[in-house]
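INTERNAL AUDIT FORM
Audit reference: QA-55
Scope: verify that the stored structure record matches its stored sequence.
Auditor: D.O.
Record contents follow.
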Amino acid sequence: QVQLVESGGGLVRPGGSLRLSCAASGNRGSISTMGWYRQAPGKERELVAVFRGSDSSYYTDSVKGRFTISKNNANNTVYLQMNSLKPEDTAVYYCNEQEVPGINYWGQGTQVTVSS
């Protein structure tokens, strides 16, 4: 079993920044992707940014140039640096790890609210 614990959400004004952290623990297998998804009220959960394989990163178009995903392999933590935040970035952000063969783990989620 794998545990993913997110932290770093909160309330921020438009144009502000937040940094999310996701600490992974437990019996981890072969990881295919690890990263961040989000779900806004009334909308489906969407991919935000993930690592595919060891170091290849992918971002959804709406966050390119504003968000940066990074990781620290020594402490099994993935980060999401979010800059130039917009009200439409408001959502619950979830950490996700997908392992071979098709095992999917989710964190509990952390709320990000962008409002003046």
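Auditor finding: record pair retrieved intact. DSSP finds no helices and eleven strands in the chain.
Action required: none
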